[in-house]
Amino acid sequence: MTAPAYGVLRRVSETASVLLENNPSTMTLEGTNTWVLRGGDAAASVVVDPGYHDLDHLEKLAAVGPVELILLTHHHPDHAEGAPWFSSKTGAPVRAFDASLCIDAPPFGDGDVITAGGLDFTVLHTPGHTDDSVSLLVAGQILTGDTILGRGTTVLHDLGDYLRSLRKLIALPAGTPGLPGHGPELPDLPATAREYLAHREQRLDQVRSALRTLGEDATPRQVVEVVYADVDRALWAPAEASVRAQLDYLRASAEDGQ
User: Fold this and answer.
1) Which of 11, 152, 240, 251 to pair with 139, CA 20 to 30 A apart?
2) How many CA atoms lie within 13 A of 66 on its CB side?
3) pTM for the full model?
């Protein structure tokens, strides 16, 4: 496998480039993808997810050139923590779904169109990983933050929200490229979203099966030990969060008589 090119701006499409932050882990894969987007002859770029307050990364990002706007896909620190410093450095405002993350600009909402950097960004509210997660459709490609990763699956906060978000992404035109917050680009994001949906339905069946063995009051940890028995134990803690979301979903569905 080729070593990640940290600190080197890599062109991905006519309008999008990526600067990979050197913060690899089991949760961030090779690191955080900071996206730099600019259309046509625009004088300044839009930066999506500056990453941690990592001055080596942020200084390299600032050296790319003028920045008109900073957008955040969600509040997690590996995406948003560096935004205040980067905003101060570049003079660019920060916009996010969560108003508390915004600097010198209003929050955005589902369906909003943001024009900056010579491009139009359409906001899709795609909660599930977090309540404030969004995906950004721009120039025929979509930035997904942590809603869909370049490989593997994301940790869930709310499964019902997440399933609805996947269906929203599946409805995009076939062949729409995905630009994720971690991992490699995806050539057909709707197809990947369809695979994610099938995977989540399979996991739900596995959790239902585990509950039949363990009892309906089983804890998330007990379910993880059954369903994720073949998975590296280093991933059991984030898996437990996802299982908790699945149990909440199944128990709420049972209460509703679904």
Assistant:
1) 152
2) 8
3) 0.91
Q: Is 121 exposed, middle or buried (0-12, 13-18, 19+ CB in 10 A)?
A: buried
Name every residue whose Cβ is closer than 8 Å to that of residue 119 and which is 6 or more positions away in sequence.
15, 37, 38, 39, 42, 46, 138, 139
**Residue % of the chain over a pLDDT of 70:** 97
Residue from 165, 168, 163 nearest 199 by CA: 163
DSSP string, the chain: -PPP-TT--EE-SSSEEEEE-S--BTTTBT--EEEEE--TT-SSEEEE---SS-HHHHHHHHTT--EEEEE-S---HHHHTTHHHHHHHH---EE-SSGGG-BSS----TT-EEEETTEEEEEEE--SSSTT-EEEEETTEEEEETSS-SSS----S-HHHHHHHHHHHHTSPTT--EEESSSS-BS-HHHHHHHHHHHHHHHHHHHHHHHHHH-TT--HHHHHHHHTTTS-GGGHHHHHHHHHHHHHHHHHHHHTT-
Q: Compute the average pLDDT of residues 214-220.
A: 89
